[in-house]
Each structure stands twice: as C-alpha cells, then as structure tokens.
Design brief:
The protein is of the alpha/beta class. It has two domains: about 30-115, 3-Layer(aba) Sandwich (Rossmann fold), CATH 3.40.50.10860; about 140-260, NAD(P)-binding Rossmann-like Domain (Rossmann fold, 3-Layer(aba) Sandwich), CATH 3.40.50. Helix content is about 45%, strand content about 15%. The protein has ten helices and ten strands. It has helices at about 5-25, 40-60, 75-85, 105-110, 120-130, 140-150, 170-180, 195, 240-245, 260-280, and strands at about 30-40, 60-65, 90-95, 160, 180-185, 200-205, 225, 230, 235, 250. The protein has a five-stranded parallel beta sheet. A three-stranded parallel beta sheet has the order 2-1-3, with helices on both faces. Strands 8-9 form a two-stranded antiparallel sheet. Helix 2 (about 40-60) links the parallel strand 1 and strand 2 (about 60-65). Helix 2 crosses helix 10 (about 260-280) and helix 6 (about 140-150) packs across helix 7. It is globular and about 50 Å long.
Length: about 280
C-alpha cells in the first residue's frame, strides 16, 4: 500500500490553518516565518518558494531575504540577529545547503532555540536525544507522522535507518528509538548492509543514492519510507528501487509525492508551535 505524504500533509495543513485562525483571534497577530536564502541554486529557490506558498496557505505571514553568493557571513549573521530580536518573528530558517565557503554551523548557531523551526540547533537535537523534544527536524518528524498514518504499532519493531546525516538520519534514529523501536543506523561505510536491512520491519532510506535499496535487501511486508530525491534522466527518483520493492512492502512511500510534502507541513507546524510557546511566555 502506498503512503502518500501529500494526503497526510493535506490533513496536517488543514489543522494548522484552523489553529492559525484561533491563534489570530486570541493574539491578534499571525505566526511569522522568516526565510534566508544565499545564492541562486534552482532547487533551493524552489524549496523556498514552496515554503512561502505554504505560509500563505495556512494564513502565516512570511518574510524572505535573498543574498547573492559571496555575501559576507557577517551580513547574514546580522540579519539573523535582527530577526532574533523581532518579537513578531516566530521562526527563522536558513535554506540549506549554503554555497561553498560558508560556515553553516556558525551561521545557524545565531538562530535562537525558540525560533529554530528547522530543529537543527544543538540544544534542540540534545533535547530529542533526552526524549524531551521541543522542536524536531522537519523531515524525520514528517516520517513519524507517515508511520502513524499506517496505524502500525511501532513498539518493539526492528527499524533500520540508512543514512547518518545531522538533518535526517540521526534525528530519525532518535525518534524511532523514542517510539520504542530497536534501531540500527547504516551508512556508506556499513559492511554487508543487506544483513541489517533484511531484518527491518521499518526501513527509512536517506542515503542520497538513486535506487540504492533493491528488493533483495527488503524483508517481506516491511514498511519502507524513501526520503531520497534524485534526478535521473530528467525524472525524480528515490533511494529505493520503487517498482520492485513495492511488490514486497506492506507500505511504501513514492517519490515524488511521499516525504517531500511532509517536510513543509512540519516546518509550518513547528512555526505555529513556536508562536504559541512564545505567546505563553509573554
């Protein structure tokens, strides 16, 4: 059975829009997301456009700041500091990846924990590891919503995450562990990877290699979530050989239309939660 992130995201966005109206009625303002993009990478510009459109859809205000590649880090940091002090800004997002030569960690470190709606801040990652999550990375959080959509009880399930990035793999493993799964993390240096993947009840793939996971690597009736987005011969494909793995999986997410829409909906969810938390602290 297919897990369409589009469908799950649509329901999530409806709820966010409804809660946004209630927020406006109570506080007489709308949640505001500020997005910073550096350079002219087409994919990044598309992602930012989709995020701005998402804000409009649910009734948020949005601010967009575009900088040319070569803009000094200090200029970008100054803008982040300004947004950090702005009482009407609830979330700050720096579109990644930044062009070569920029220190991503330095730039991101100036985003306050309370406005880190991407969930990349070390403090937010630390809280997730302690099972006291505040703001959770959007893509892994979206995957958890997709798993919830299946209705399958995750307790005790063997979960394998392929990929160990700070943005997906590591927080994904923590979320699954916190959901009482037994978790294994595989990566580019893992030997005999199929020995692990064949035992997975839940397989989350985020390794960045087109059609990397083949049917012989997947257990019968496994739940397979494909986080990968790769362009091959002008078409978008995932990290999973979808056509063949679909025959074995009980649930599988397609590419496109799978995890991607969930990422934006979770960003908006995080922004709304940030706005509510900040109002409660005033």
């Amino acid at each position: 059975m297919l897990i369409y992130g589009k469908e799950v995201a649509a329901k999530t966005l409806e709820k966010i829009a409804s809660d946004t109206n209630k927020f406006f009625e109570k506080y007489e303002r709308r949640p505001t997301l500020a997005v910073i993009i550096v350079g002219e990478d087409p994919a990044s510009q598309t992602y930012v456009k989709n995020k701005i459109n998402g804000c409009k859809q649910v009734g948020f205000n949005s601010l967009s700041y575009e900088y040319k590649d070569g803009t000094s880090e200090d200029e970008i940091v100054d803008k982040i500091k300004q947004l950090a002090e702005d009482k009407d800004v609830d979330g700050i997002l720096v579109q990644l990846p930044l062009p070569k030569g920029y220190n991503e960690q330095r730039i991101l470190s100036y985003i306050p924990d309370s406005k880190d709606v991407d969930g990349f801040n070390a403090s937010n990652i630390g809280c997730l590891c302690l099972n006291r999550p505040r703001t959770v990375s959007c893509t892994p959080l979206g995957v958890m919503h997709m798993l919830e959509f299946t209705g399958v009880d995750l307790t005790g399930k063997n979960a394998v995450v392929i990929g160990r990035s700070n943005t997906v793999g590591k927080p994904m493993a923590m979320l699954l562990l916190n959901a009482n799964c037994t978790v294994t993390v595989c990566h580019s240096k893992t030997q005999n990877m199929s020995d692990f993947t064949k035992r997975a009840d839940i397989l989350v793939v985020a390794i960045g290699k087109p059609k990397f996971v083949t049917a012989d690597m997947v257990k019968d009736s496994a739940i397979v979530i494909d986080v990968g987005i790769n362009r091959v011969d002008g078409k978008l494909v995932g990290d999973v050989d979808f056509e063949n793995v679909e025959k074995k999986a009980s649930y599988i997410s397609p590419v496109p239309g799978g995890v991607g829409p969930m990422t934006i909906s979770m960003l908006l969810y995080n922004t709304l939660m940030s706005a509510i938390a900040r109002e409660n602290e005033r």
